[in-house]
Specification:
17 strands, 2 domains, binds zinc ion, alpha+beta, Aminopeptidase, Alpha-Beta Plaits
């Protein structure tokens, strides 16, 4: 067990909160029903600006990341700099964009559970997080309760490669520690997430008429199939996974395809294993190509173009990380137990940690994300509102 230095939590009492779940539900539905696919987050961002002006934010900034991300807006930063309590500043992060299909979302609410009507995702990933933050501030203001300095970082283009977070300048925040509200589970904090590399392989064969001159062709598709059969994919070990997610190529049924393009990824909590697995994948593709006789006079046939690059770095918070200490205290003052876990997904938090912001990921109860079955319970959202309020006041 890791040694955790002892930091006493401040003494907090009287934490019986009555969250306005009706208002929380209404806020959440209105956020879900604003279209915000990646690179088109401006409508949602403008909507949030109005809300936070009403709530008395001290500063509202749209950064200049749009030039890098290609979005119609920048990352949105909201600051409550002097809300009364002398606490270490913290930030909360959610992303504005939603995975497809996400146009014209209509929300169903039955027996305390939010879903979409079935044609689209719900968009609780990550609008539940945004609704939770809004309700937390509304609650504190309703109750004339002082809280500590807080900033909200709402990023663009998370779902298409964490582009907003990558283009964000961490000095735009005063806080040095915070929480990304962007995961499944309730009362769960993610302290470790894997690094990921994307790889791209183009297999080069030789085109020929499939009926007239099949002996003159080399099928790039067949080469790809041979490689795919040999690749080690899925869960590779307790720390690592690999996947080929896209394949394209070919032009017609009567033409032997000369180019096939594949894209995939490897994730691992170990950088060493990550590099090894990517190298193994490269070797399999190369071996398949090398096993076929090369065509005389054509040096690249059959051939391979293989490329890989980092999607995001690994994140790993130390047991005594400030963000973890703060949330232990916040949960303790609610007499609540938090689970600290390792997760398999990458998110803005990987990037924020890399840029020096001590960021833990907080589960907000969303379920079956990235699917049209996505759902979230209102009570789970309310439970997270309480935790956020506790973070802001203890
Ligand atoms: Zn998300």
């Amino acid at each position: 067990m890791a040694h955790v230095p002892f930091h006493p939590c401040p003494d907090t009492t009287g934490n019986s909160m009555k969250i306005n779940t009706e208002r929380l539900a209404a806020t959440f539905v209105s956020l879900c029903e604003i279209d915000s696919p990646s690179r088109q987050e401006k409508s949602l961002s403008d909507y949030l600006k109005n809300i936070f002006v009403e709530l008395g934010a001290d500063k509202i900034i749209t950064d200049n990341s749009a030039a890098k991300t290609g979005s119609d807006t920048g990352n949105l930063v909201i600051k409550f700099s002097h809300p009364g309590l002398d606490l270490e500043p913290i930030f909360f992060n959610c992303h504005l964009d939603v995975i497809s299909p996400c146009h014209a979302v209509k929300v169903n609410f039955r027996d305390g559970l939010f879903t979409s009507k079935g044609e689209t995702v719900l968009g609780g990933d990550d609008k539940a997080g945004i609704a939770i933050l809004i309700e937390a501030i509304q609650y504190l203001q309703d109750n004339h309760q002082l809280f500590g300095p807080v900033e909200f970082l709402f990023t663009t283009c998370e779902e298409i490669g964490l582009l907003g977070a990558k283009a964000f300048n961490s000095t735009d925040l005063t806080a040095k520690m915070g929480y990304a509200l962007d995961s499944t589970g309730v009362d769960v904090v993610i302290t470790e997430a894997p690094a990921a590399q994307e790889f791209q392989a183009t297999l080069i064969g030789l085109a020929a008429h499939a009926g007239l001159h099949p002996e003159q062709g080399i099928s790039a598709l067949q080469l790809a199939a041979q490689a795919l059969v040999r690749l080690n994919l899925g869960r590779l070990d307790s720390l690592s996974t690999a996947n080929v997610g896209l394949i394209s190529g070919g032009t017609a049924t009567n033409i032997i395809p000369d180019r096939v393009f594949l894209r995939g990824e490897v994730r691992s909590h170990s950088n060493k294993l990550l590099n090894q697995y990517v190298a193994d994948i490269h070797n399999v593709f190369q071996d398949v190509v090398d096993c076929r006789p090369h065509v005389q006079g054509l040096t690249r046939v059959p051939g391979l173009e293989f490329d890989f690059f980092e999607q995001y770095p690994r994140m790993r918070l130390a047991a005594d990380a400030p963000a973890l200490h703060r949330i232990r205290c916040a949960a303790g003052s609610l007499s609540r137990k938090i689970s600290f876990i390792r997760a398999g997904g990458g998110s803005d938090a990987n990037i924020l940690n890399q840029s020096g912001l001590n960021t833990a990921i907080l589960g907000i109860g969303m379920t079956d994300v990235h699917s049209t079955h996505e759902s979230i319970h209102l009570q789970d959202m309310a439970r997270t509102v309480e935790l956020v309020i506790s973070l802001l006041t203890s």
